[in-house]
Amino acid sequence: MHTLRFTIKPRSAFGTPFVGDTLFGQLCWALRYRFGNGWLADRLLGYCEGSPFMVIADAFPQGYLPLPSVPSGCFQDSIEDRKVLKKKRWLPLAGMAADFRGWQVLARTDREAADAVLRAGNIHLDDPALQKIGPQPHNTINRATGTTGEGMFAPYSMPQIWFHPAMRFDLYAVIDESRIDAEELTAALTDIGRSGYGRDASAGLGKFALEGKVERDPLPKNSNANAWLTLAPCAPQGMGFDREKSFYRPFTRFGRHGDAAALSGNPFKRPVLLAGTGSVFALANGAVEQSQLFIGQGVGGVSISQSEAVNQGYAPVLAIRMEV
């Protein structure tokens, strides 16, 4: 298996954050439409038995990875204000070679990361922002009265995520090239970028384009690694990790079907408990296999109406050296 890195250029507002397991689900639909239902069914064989054909990460500001979700005591003391340090959540790729305890000092806030990406594109702003979230009003017209009203016809707002046109994001994907190649995944991502990703894609949200060449195995290596840093939400249960040296923020994914299945009688999936992006997991024996590019497990049985549906409980990982 190999890790690929794509460069994403947003072309519209977004209704859904770029999260790995959500994008995986939409990619499955895009691959099904492009190559057929049988093609996808073949690739999903063994998915819940530790054999995924692809594992998709979250999208990160270009040149950055998430700062590990560990207690502040794991990092070295700093003279910076604690509130400022808590806002630092993006680690420059160039800083990965530094000692783990110094990572928090090297990390950047949303604003600092956005400023670096924009300056790389020769854009200089006084108040750079990684993203801006604002309400978008919606109306539902009662055809009997020709206007809005109460209840289901009451006006409402939904949040939209806006990025600067010059913002760029890195998207990592681990693929089994015996089952899907870079060209096939690129085609599916291109299809999603044209039709839209996430909520309200049919209303024009979630448009993006791919830029530049696909990079192969771009993540740095660490021969002294003793833990994994996750680049997407994952399901780490029952994998033998050391509880004393593993850190994560849990959250519950209340998923729903996409595409045509979203219009079914029951579009909602069963909740799935996951560990958030930026988690750190260490094995009890301290050994980290450098060739391992993902951890986690595929989650089946998430849908009542679609028995073959799965949830990505895998995450691409980066091997790191953590001192606790």
Proportion in β-strands: 15-25%
* Biggest beta sheet attributes: 4 strands, antiparallel
Provide the succession of SSEs. Answer: EHHEEHEHHEEEHEEEEEEE
Q: What percent of the residues sit in helical stretches (DSSP H or I)? A: 10-25%
> How many beta strands in the DSSP annotation?
14
* N-to-C CA distance: 30 Å
> Cα-atom Rg, whole angstroms?
21 Å
The structure class reads alpha+beta
Number of helices: 6
Q: Low-confidence parts, pLDDT < 50 over ≥5 residues?
A: none
Shape: globular
If you average the pLDDT, what whole number results?
87
Strand order of the largest sheet: 2-7-1-8
Structural write-up:
- The protein is an alpha+beta fold.
- It has a domain at 130-161.
- It is built from six helices and 14 strands.
How would you summarize this macromolecular structure in one to three sentences?
With 324 residues, the protein is α+β, with helices and mostly antiparallel strands.
